[in-house]
Amino acid sequence: MRASRPAVLLALVLVAALAVWALLEGLYSQLPPLPWTAVPTLLLLALGEIVAGVHLRNKIHHKAAAEEARPVDPLSVANMAALGKASAHAAAALTGVFLGFVLHVLPDIDLPTPRHDFIVSVATTVSALALTGAALFLEYCCRVPKDPEAERNDRR
């Protein structure tokens, strides 16, 4: 499995933002106000992925306490890497969705409902970006460290 590519994530953001913006042109007046529930959900997921990444990286680099010095299960690391990649892609798509909302309601920000939706959309966009960063960090933490002896041989 390869690491998530920034170009793919950016493409997901742009495609989702344009698609949502286009859909909202005809449907926005029929939608209820956006709820705040996505903001804490995305932030808690980001926090969970950061904690999991730090814990996993410490285990991979043998920085764990002596009493829990069990070897890392390779299948667990692969599962966490897959979780990081899937989270990065899903969070990038959510970033685009709520960025589409931001772009759509921005011209009508002086009205109460679009102003509320703008604030919620900006907060959710920032939360989705935080989850994207946390997912990329989790992916990074799943990398296998280079062998110190191989590095010494490469220097010679």
Automatic annotation (TrEMBL):
<feature type="transmembrane region" description="Helical">
    <location>
        <begin position="118"/>
        <end position="138"/>
    </location>
</feature>
<dbReference type="Pfam" id="PF11377">
    <property type="entry name" value="DUF3180"/>
</dbReference>
<keyword id="KW-0812">Transmembrane</keyword>
<dbReference type="InterPro" id="IPR021517">
    <property type="entry name" value="DUF3180"/>
</dbReference>
<keyword id="KW-0472">Membrane</keyword>
<feature type="transmembrane region" description="Helical">
    <location>
        <begin position="38"/>
        <end position="56"/>
    </location>
</feature>
<feature type="transmembrane region" description="Helical">
    <location>
        <begin position="86"/>
        <end position="106"/>
    </location>
</feature>
<protein>
    <recommendedName>
        <fullName>DUF3180 domain-containing protein</fullName>
    </recommendedName>
</protein>
<keyword id="KW-1133">Transmembrane helix</keyword>
